[in-house]
Structure formats: structure tokens, C-alpha cells
């Protein structure tokens, strides 16, 4: 692992200012992504995973906006000098951010059917992305797009380039979206639940494809999912989120074999294993995620936590602190540090 991270997120806060109140979708998230690393973000639906991704790409829709923190992109200029750019300070629609978005940081969205335009061929859309970020001719861009379709395993790539997204199966649409994302050789790829809309067989193919392309290109990946099984296959380092806050961070082996936070432990207990007794109900996490407008005071997980300490967990919010050699956890079971007001 190199000493300098590719991306450093520091105390990121992204709020949505609604008529009914303020939704703190991301409320003080910090992490580092290193070159060539697969960084996993996991949590239940509504925990802030996708909003974190949108904040990094500066595509948070109104009434949402970044209200605090830094998103530091470390990159080399043409003369080889290392520079650090704070994406929060850039104009979201300015030329610098547009150059970064797609060329240096690319996205595989959740639903490729919605991401592709239905009235343009997938080839035209991939070629447009290449022309936007690379100084090549139309013919050269088509050749690059064709090669990318071959690289991601799309059969009959010449024919598929001239087809529309609605003519492709879910697996082929997902591969075409991966081809578009990788067409400009980004240093960081954000995969936002890339296997959600496909069947199990296609999911396995997409995961193998992403792993192979990542190893060949040494591309860093932020892999966002609610599926811990996928995280176990793909990620090297993982961050567990709940209600916009970090619950736990650490290497994936440590998180899976020695989870610290009660939320992480409960998530792992709910995964079926071959050693489980047949016809026995899976353990579940009691209750449900609180409504964003009625966030509980103190640790956001305490209403559902079996180990919650009255007078402490329901009053103060624990800070993320080291627990062991490589893990970090936000829980008063391991330390007494709390988030400063």
C-alpha cells in the first residue's frame, strides 16, 4: 500500500434541506482510498452510501448540498508534481470538475437501464464520453469503444455498439455501463450497487469482470452495496455505515472474523451459512431504521441495540476510535470518546 492515498474524505457532511426539516444524509464521514485498493461501503438502504458517492462526484441534487468537510483528490500534474484538489471547493458544473468526473473518477450507477438514454445507441453514448475526455477523432473513439466492449466480454461487440439499451439484456447493459466507465482509464471507479438489478449468475460474472479489470488496470474501486457477501468477495477494506454515520472501519478479514460494533455483528449474524440448522429462522435486527427527520439522540443504533447502555448510548454520540491494531469503531463498549458538538 502506497503512503499517499488517491482520495481522502474528511468529516464529510451532506444535508438535504426540506420543508419538513433537515435530513443529515451524511454526517461526518472520513476515509481514505489508496491506488489499486477495493474499498467497500456497506449498510442498510438509507444509510447514506449513495449520497456519499454523489458528494464525491459533486452530483448531489437540490435541495441537498455539502455543508462541511473535505474531499481531497491527490493527483499528478503533467510535469509529475503531486497536487491535491479539494473537490468541495470546485464549481460542481465548472470545467475542472467536469474534467475530473468521468476521466479520473468514473461511476457505475445502480440501474443501467435508467442511466442509458433510450433514444441513442449505447455506442454513441460511450463514444461521446470518450470524445469529451480524450483528444481523439470520431473513428478513434469508436475503435476505443469497440475494444472496451471486447474487454468487458460483450459478444458481437460491433453489432452491440449500434443497438439501443432496451435491446440489451440486463447483464449486457451492465457490461456496457462498465465499458463506458472504464473507457477513459479512470484512477478511481465508484461502483454503486452494480449487481442490484441482475440475477445471481450475471452478478457473479459482473463481479469477476470487475475484479479482473481492476487487477489489470490497477484501478481503485469504491464498491457500494448492502450485500456483505459481495463485500467479502470484492473488498480489501470496508466501512460500515448507519444513518449517515460510520459504525466501523477496518480490513475486510478483521471485520468479518472479529466484528466490533453490535450493528456489524448483527448484520453478519443475519447471513445464512451452510453450518446453520435447517428450517430455523435467521436472526434479525429488531426494529427498523428511524425516519431521517426523527433521528434518535446519541448513538443512532441504540434503539435497536441489545448492548445499549441507558444514560450513555441514548445521550452521547460515540466517535470513531481505534479498536485493536487495524480496526476503528464508534461504540462506547470500547472507548469513551464522543463526537464534539
Structure write-up:
- With 341 residues, the chain is of the alpha/beta class.
- Helix content is 31%, strand content 23%.
- The protein has eleven helices and twelve strands.
- It has helices at 49-57, 95-103, 112-115, 122-133, 138-151, 157-161, 170-182, 200-217, 228-234, 252-257, 262-269; strands spanning 7-17, 22-33, 38-42, 64-76, 82-86, 105-108, 188-192, 220-225, 237-242, 245-251, 321-323, 327-329.
- The strands form two sheets. An eight-stranded mixed β-sheet has the order 6-7-8-3-9-10-12-11, sandwiched between helices. It has a four-stranded antiparallel β-sheet with strand order 2-1-4-5, covered by helices on one side.
- A hairpin with a 4-residue loop joins strand 1 and strand 2 (22-33).
- Helix 4 packs across helix 5 (138-151), helix 4 (122-133) packs parallel to helix 7 (170-182) and helix 5 (138-151) packs across helix 7.
- The longest helix has 18 residues, at 200-217.
Amino acid at each position: 500500500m502506497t503512503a499517499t492515498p488517491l482520495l481522502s474524505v474528511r468529516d464529510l457532511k451532506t444535508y438535504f434541506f426540506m420543508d419538513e426539516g433537515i435530513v443529515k444524509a451524511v454526517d461526518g464521514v472520513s476515509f481514505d482510498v489508496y491506488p489499486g485498493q477495493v474499498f467497500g461501503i456497506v449498510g442498510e438502504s438509507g444509510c447514506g452510501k449513495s449520497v456519499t458517492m454523489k458528494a464525491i462526484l459533486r452530483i448531489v441534487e437540490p435541495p441537498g448540498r455539502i455543508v462541511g468537510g473535505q474531499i481531497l483528490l491527490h493527483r499528478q500534474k503533467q510535469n509529475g508534481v503531486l497536487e491535491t484538489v479539494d473537490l468541495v471547493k470546485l464549481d460542481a458544473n465548472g470545467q475542472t470538475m467536469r474534467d475530473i468526473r468521468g476521466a479520473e473518477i468514473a461511476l457505475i450507477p445502480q440501474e443501467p437501464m435508467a442511466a442509458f438514454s433510450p433514444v441513442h445507441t449505447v455506442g454513441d453514448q460511450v463514444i461521446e464520453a470518450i470524445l469529451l475526455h480524450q483528444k481523439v477523432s470520431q473513428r478513434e473513439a469508436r475503435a476505443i469503444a469497440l475494444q472496451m466492449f471486447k474487454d468487458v466480454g460483450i459478444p458481437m461487440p460491433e453489432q452491440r455498439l449500434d443497438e439501443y439499451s432496451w435491446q440489451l439484456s440486463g447483464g449486457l447493459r451492465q457490461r456496457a455501463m462498465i465499458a463506458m466507465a472504464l473507457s477513459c482509464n479512470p484512477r478511481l471507479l465508484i461502483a454503486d450497487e452494480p449487481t442490484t438489478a441482475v440475477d445471481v449468475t450475471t452478478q457473479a460474472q459482473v463481479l469477476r469482470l470487475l475484479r479482473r479489470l481492476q487487477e489489470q488496470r490497477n484501478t481503485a474501486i469504491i464498491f457500494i452495496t448492502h450485500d456483505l457477501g459481495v463485500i467479502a468477495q470484492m473488498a480489501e477494506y470496508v466501512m460500515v455505515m448507519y444513518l449517515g454515520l460510520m459504525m466501523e472501519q477496518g480490513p475486510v478479514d478483521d471485520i468479518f472474523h472479529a466484528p466490533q460494533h453490535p450493528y456489524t455483528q448483527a448484520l453478519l449474524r443475519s447471513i445464512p451459512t451452510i453450518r446453520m440448522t435447517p428450517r430455523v429462522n435467521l436472526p434479525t435486527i429488531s426494529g427498523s431504521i428511524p425516519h431521517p427527520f426523527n433521528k434518535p439522540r446519541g448513538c443512532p443504533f441504540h434503539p435497536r441495540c441489545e448492548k445499549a447502555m441507558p444514560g450513555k448510548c441514548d445521550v452521547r454520540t460515540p466517535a470513531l476510535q481505534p479498536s485493536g491494531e487495524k480496526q476503528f469503531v464508534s461504540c462506547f463498549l470500547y472507548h469513551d470518546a464522543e463526537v464534539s458538538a
